Amino acid sequence: MLRDRQHLARDGFLIALVALDRQTGKLVQGPDVISRGFVYQKGAEELIEAVREEVRKAVERCRRQGQTEFGAVRSEIRDQVLRLVYERTGRQPMVLPLLVEV
Known about the structure:
Blueprint: H1 2-11, E1 13-20, E2 27-36, H2 45-64, H3 70-89, E3 94-101
Parallel strand pairs: 1-3
Antiparallel strand pairs: 1-2
Helix pairs in contact: 2-3
């Protein structure tokens, strides 16, 4: 737990909130991206929009591959967003994908 708190203090976190259709796995709404302790959102619209696009791509990639299990979709989102953010900023925030079925 202490390690997680140190990580949050150093690099912050990103939450990607996604609503998926229960039957098809398609994106219904979002993704909404919330960041805390990572980048100031008003100054980082381009990065936040890039994260949104990466989440859309990850969800679509999972859907095409037939991966409908939430754990697999979460992992794909987390991995791709973390890769993008690290490439652009050199930081590794905690990435928390939150998926909601509708």
